Amino acid sequence: MSRKEHPDGSAAPGDAPATGPPPIPPGGFLRLIDEISSAFPESPRTTALSLMDVDPCRLHAYWSILPNDLNAARRDLGPDAARAELVIRIHGVDESPGPYLDVVVRGAEANRYIDFPRGGGTYSAELGLRRSNGSLNVLAHSNPVTLPRAEPAPAAGRPAPAIPSSLDRRPPPRQRARSGRHD
Amino acid sequence: MPKGYFILLLHAHLPYVRHPEYERFFEENWLFEAITDSYIPLIGTLERFVRQDLRFRLTVSLSPSLLTMLQDDLLQERYAGHMRRLIDLCGKEVERTRREPDFHRLALMYHARFTDALRVFVDEYGGDLTAAFRRLHASGALELITSAATHGYLPLLRVHPASVRAQLAVAAQTFERIIGHRAPGIWLPECGYYPGLETALDENGFRYFVVDAHGIDNAATRPRHGTFAPLLCRNGVAAFGRDPDSSCQVWSAEEGYPGDPDFREYYRDIGFDLDFDYVKSHILDGRTRVNTGVKYYRITGSDRDKQPYDPNRARARVATYVQDFTTRRLEQAARIASTMDRPPMILAPFDAELFGHWWYEGPLWLEGVLQALANGEESLQLVSPSDYLARHGDSQVATPSASSWGYRGYSEMWLNESNDWIYPHLHDAGRTLAESAKRYRDEPAGTPRARALNQAARSLLLAQASDWPFIMKTGTTVEYAQRRVRDQVARLHYLLSAVETDTIDETRLRALEYMDNVFPDVDFRMYAEG
Questions:
Q1: Residues of A in contact with B353 (CB under 8 A)
Q2: Tens of pLDDT along B59-73?
Q3: Which of A98, B247, B266, B469 has the greatest number of beta carbons closer than 10 A?
Q4: Structural contact between residues B369 and B322, judged by C-beta atoms closer than 8 angstroms
Q5: Which of B423, B477, B517 lies closest to A180 in CB terms?
Q6: How much is the average pLDDT of B250-257?
Q7: Distance between terminal CA atoms of chain A?
């Protein structure tokens, strides 16, 4: 029905997939999909901690810990191990070794939303066991995350210009809709 | 010199919803409805304007996943079948409504409309609407740009930077393969931007992108002209800001034009209103009620029973709104111009599917706005972002702030309790693919191992679409969205495991290549870099 060639007439390069349906009987595709779906990793594959920015005052942390890594970390702590709490230690990347925030990990939770009183700033975190002296036996380091600016930058050397009425802050725009979706 | 510039930008995107494993599949209707309701009317209007020598410029973003679906043989055939069933249903409706004049004329309208859409699709475009977009670009009426490969929401993919680079590289590659030239700019999925993204944009040849207004307002250096002029990132890539006033008039639930009581009601459809035995052979699988696109009522108002739709009354309201919109833009430009050293630029971006699919009268409104502003060299001139940059390339240098056009302006829509479970899997899948890509980067092209790695890359890209977390949040077709992420992540791990254990099953690999046939020229090696 359609013309498939590149506008300049060239073909796709060498790693192109096989074309046309494979020799699979009717219903075979659905069986195959079900079989392959078992490859979805239900349990964590590494010990890791990641941060993402949600908005200017909120970040999201998620983590995973392999049992062997946790056991090894507890062994390292010796007598401290029984009282050691698993925490996410968050600090501003420009403030190290300045103030930090410890978020205690409860039970089997694997993610947390963390709020900050003011917008902006760059943070990183460690996941680890907190010793009684406050130091951390680190299991994983996070990526750094920068929260968005929440306000206009200060004007350079002169008063901020009047913002035209058309730029007055409005409520957030209605989220756009797409097929099958609306709000 | 005009008094101002107006950039109208339509972003066309649908997630990859091709399902050859089923005879008919509900989500494929998303594409079919968009073709009938939005893309064909848009192309028809623009081609008519070109024939009439109307001087206008419109910028259209075509996402790579949409471009690929529009070129797909199977979906083209299925669209034709879908339309034939709808035309049959409308034929029955013409008979059924013969004693109800208000509905009868609407049944005739839909019958004619669907018949014409199928004729245009098959006879004029040979089933391939991308050819129409290419022609319109060649005529000078359109500036065509693209979006990320599968519309991945880049701010939340950047934990694994190679995933961001791949979304952009595949986008550039796919657009060029299908459209025939490099995309000058990019529509960032959901306007999702973060400082630093411009480096990857530049690497892939994109010269501009669009952010929401607060991305400009909260830039690292205070913008001199707000959203009325673009900012240049330090590497020269331009950031255009969405004009909130223009958007509000169309999008706002309270103030927006689409909510007029005389406009067609979206949620009353004969697929749900009529006896199921009557409609079932014309829709989907004969077991499930779905929308048909045949809708007989107008919005009317919340305190009254729905009244029959009257196209003439609706058309009159459209004319009012065209006048309102263009007058306000001219006034806005005149008001701002006195504070600037150059004509103000107003950018109004919308989802293309709003016009026609969600807002039935939208194509008429769009037609009216383009007609009113065309030939406006001395007042408000229709331009594309590239046109603007060619005339005013000396914009202020400043880095926009992280932002999106979603709820509350940041990432909350795509990262919340309903959908946060997907990110550990997406990031882990990206890292796992990168490890394999590094290990096998010298694998010769075309071997089963190289094909399996390429297929794993397709699965990762498909899992990353912003549509899936969006749907999980809005709660519409949640099970489908969850399944898309889970299945694609599972396919990636299945393929990588087969690669690592040297147990690639040719039949299974071919089946996955056939089912997920997006981006035929993807190269897994791009994940090996960095």
A1: 177-179
A2: 999 999 999 999 999
A3: B469
A4: yes
A5: B477
A6: 81
A7: 37
Strands B345-351 and A100-104: unpaired
B-chain CB neighbours of A53 within 8 Å are 155, 194, 402, 410-411
Q: Collapsing DSSP states into helix, strand and coil, what is residue A126?
A: strand
Assess contact for B499 and B521: CB atoms under 8 A.
no
**Cβ neighbours for A21, distance < 8 A, ≥ 6 positions apart:** B20, B514
B128 part of contact set with chain A, CB < 8 Å: yes
- Judged by average pLDDT, the poorest of A141-145, B304-308, B430-434 is B304-308
Q: Give the number of residues written for chain B.
A: 530
CA distance B490 to A21: 21
Write the secondary structure of B488-521 as one string of H (helix), E (strand) and C (coil): HHHHHHHHHHHHHCCCCCHHHHHHHHHHCCCCCC
B365 vs A63: CA distance, rounded Å: 49
The reply to whether residue A153 touches residue B220, judged by beta carbons under 8 angstroms, is: yes
| Most A CBs within 10 Å, among B28, B222, B224, to test the A interface | B222
User: B152: which residues sit within 8 A by CB, 6+ positions away?
Assistant: B163, B164, B167, B189, B461, B464, B465, B466
- What mean pLDDT is predicted for residues B417-434? 97
Interface test with A, best of B411, B431, B441 (most A CBs within 10 A): B411
Interface of A with B in 105-124 (CB under 8 A): 110-111
**Distance separating alpha carbons of residues B230 and B398, to the nearest angstrom:** 10
| pLDDT tens by residue, B478-529 | 999 999 999 999 999 999 999 999 999 999 999 999 999 999 999 999 999 8
ipTM: 0.93
Chain B residues 384-423 with a CB less than 8 Å from chain A: 401-403, 405-413, 415-416, 420, 423
Whose tokens are 């020229």? That residue is B521
- Give the closest-approach CA distance of B288 to chain A in angstroms: 15
C-alpha distances out from residue B242 to A122, A167, B221, B344, Å: 27, 11, 18, 13
Q: Is 0.90 topped by the overall pTM?
A: yes
Of the CA atoms within 13 Å of residue B212, those in its CB half-sphere come to 27
Three-class SS state of B186 = strand
- Please choose, from the candidates B116, B133, B110, the residue with its C-alpha nearest in 3D space to the C-alpha of residue B180: B133
pLDDT, tens only, B21-51: 998 899 999 999 999 999 999 999 999 999 9
Chain B contact present for A82, CB below 8 A? no
Distance from CA of B141 to the nearest CA of A (A): 19
Query: Got the DSSP string for B90-130?
Result: HHHHHHHTTT-HHHHHHHHHHHHHHHHHHHIIIIITTT-HH
Is B308 part of the contact surface with chain A (CB cutoff 8 Å)?
no
